[in-house]
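Input/output pair, single chain:
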Amino acid sequence: MTGLWQLPEAAELGGESYPFRADFRDVLQVIACLDDPDLPECSRWLVALNLFYKTTVPRIHRQAAMEYLARFLTCGETEERGGARLLDWQQDAGAIISGVNHVAGQEVRALPFVHWWTFLSWFHSMPPGQLSTVVSIRDKLSRGKKLEDWEKDFYRQNKARIEIKPRLSRQEEAERQRLKQMLQ
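Output:
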């Protein structure tokens, strides 16, 4: 992985260069694939690799390709972050893009290419706002911390936005609907 002063667009794996799709929209598709409950985990990674890399990575380099992809998603950070999931790229998309557009000073979705690391830099530079309030409340709830009165009010008014919806497979969703109909 190149240093943070450069924006990589290819991975060096086993002495070979493998170009990849670095645009934020492509990377968000990769993340959505990795979160897809309809795919077994090993299939998620294979599909994610095919979405990310522009050429097929040989089986011998697959593990290194997965590790590179995981590091790329976090801008080279390797620190493990434990605890509850506080952000959902799909559920929080509206607040994320609003904040990123604010920081970038333009509609980033209209740009033909925005490197993932640039997008993340803008994301991390977002001023306090709606998303930070939602994430802060999620964090407090996950750690059993007491909410301030205004946070309780905000939570009551925005419960559907604050609680991260579980991702159900199509089969799980069909079963949920079946049970729901039985109870009506």
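The longest strand covers residues 10-13. The chain has a mean pLDDT of 90.
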